[in-house]
Structure formats: structure tokens, C-alpha cells
Amino acid sequence: MMAFGLIALIAGAASALMFASIVSGALISLVLVCLAPLPLMLVAIAWGPLCGALGGLAATLVIGVALSTPLALGYGLAIALPAWWLGHLAMLGRPLADGSVDPDPASLQVEWYPLGRVLLWIAALAALLTAGSLFSLGSDASTISDAMRRGFARVLTLMGETNVTENDPRVGLMVAVTPVLVAASQMATLTLNLWLAAKVAAVSGRLHRPWPDLSRTNLPPMTLVALCVALAFSFFGGMTGILAIVVTTVLMVAYALVGLAVLHTITHGLASRAFWLAAAYVIIFMFSVSLVLLTILGLADAVFGFRERFLRNRQPPPLPTS
């Protein structure tokens, strides 16, 4: 029990230090803040959700004492809570009996929580975190927009030699794209942290489940309906339109990740598979517009089932029965 508590405290201390590095103002602190959920996710996966919860609680208390109560509250809601919940979902499973009346526990198989639903939870958390950051600027669309305009005008003024007003076109563009960029970055950060935590746990032998087949990730069918509804509401004005844009963004990023899964599936068996996948990832990192193509690929797979058809065509013909 002492070792269990010590592991939780170490993970909480590491996460708290990574989060508190933002007060230094160094550029590397942005990376550390993005990776702050990683220690908590790792212990939640490797030692159980209770360990992750204790680590998150300890980190929240440390930040509250060392920095401030508002920062501690923000850390607990934006980092500790999502890290604990996603680590819990990653290891969530239920036993499946083989149909016998009194099955042997050794013969029980485990049905793990579907990856598509985990991805949907990541999208939901990313949308909530983005909405929370926007509401921290104000309670209505005009107040939020004015706060962002003042902030971006000040930043552009500090970066240049001339005074930039709030009516500058560059400020208007930054205000328009900020909800999209924040939502997409939240989605990418949570996904990357969960993947890294699971990979570290697997390498260290603490992942108490088989490594999932990421190329078979499928979002629930109703996700496509939710995306269409959010896309329709994104043309509205006010907070309704802003929140709809946030939801549309996180769901489109989710389908872009499904598009990556499709890409991994259809390149399976190619002699030059490593080259094509490496080239695809380089293009994605260099040209963000390629994410649109991945999103289209993910949406097309959801509608037409490309992967299922591809896998059926790769199956060998049945053996003759006589």
C-alpha cells in the first residue's frame, strides 16, 4: 500500500511540476503543460484509476498551496479529471463467458471498452475544455470576442513596431479561427497523451490488456448524425454558433483520426508500406490542409465501409468441404 501511494504521489508531483512550469514563461513550458496529463494517465492505466485519482488530487492540492486556488481548480478540471477518466476508460472491460453454466474464470474472455467510444469521449472532453476556456473570457459571444480582440491586438502590437487596433483584419481573423484551433489542439493533446501513456505502460509490462488494433477504430454510427447537426448549428450566431463550431471541429478531428486508421488498413500488405505511411505523416505535419483529406477519408469510410470491404477482399477463399 505504501508503494501504491508513493507511485501516486510521484505521478502527481511530476504532473504538477509540468503544469507549474508555465509561470516561468519559457517556450518549453508550453510543451510541458501539454504533457502534464501524461503521468496521471500512465499510473491510471498501469496501477488503476484509484492511483490516478490520488495522484491528481495530490497535484491539485500542491498547485493550490504553491500557486493559487483558481489555478488549482483549472488544473483539476482541465488536466487531472480528463487524465483519470481516460485512463479508466482505456482499461475498462467486462468478462464474457463461453456459454457454459458455471464457467471457469480462466476461460473467461474480456470485452474491452471500444476504441471508438474512447475517441468519442476524447472529443467530448476537448469540446468541454474549449468551451470552458471561452467562457472564462465572458458569458456571451460579444464579450468573448471583445476580450480576444483586445488580447490579440496587444500581442500583435508587442510583436511589431506599430500600434495594432482591435479592428485590424488580422485580429478579426485570429478571433475567428481561435475556437477551431483551441478545439483541435485539445483533441490532439488528449489523444497523444493517452497513446503515449498506453505505449509506456505496454513497454514496461504494466499494460494489463492486449494492445488494441488501432486500425480498426470506428466511431459510433450516431456520431455522423451529431456532426451534421453541429455543422448546421455552426451557421447560427452568438454562443450557439461558437459552441457548434467547437463541436464540429472536435468531431472532424475524430474522423481525421479514423481516416488515419483507414490509411493504415488499406496500406497493409504493401511492400513499401513503411515508405507510404512515413510520407503521409510528413505531409500531415507539414501541410495541415491534408487533415481535410483525412477527415473526408474517415467520413467516407463511415458511410461506405471501405475497411470492411478491403478486409473481406483480403480473406482467403473457403476450403472445399468435400
From TrEMBL:
- The superkingdom of the source organism is Bacteria
Q: Which residues cross the membrane?
A: 59-85, 118-139, 173-198, 218-236, 243-263, 275-304
Record keywords, A-Z = Membrane, Transmembrane, Transmembrane helix
Please identify the protein, giving its name as recorded: Membrane protein
Show the Pfam families listed in the entry: DUF2232
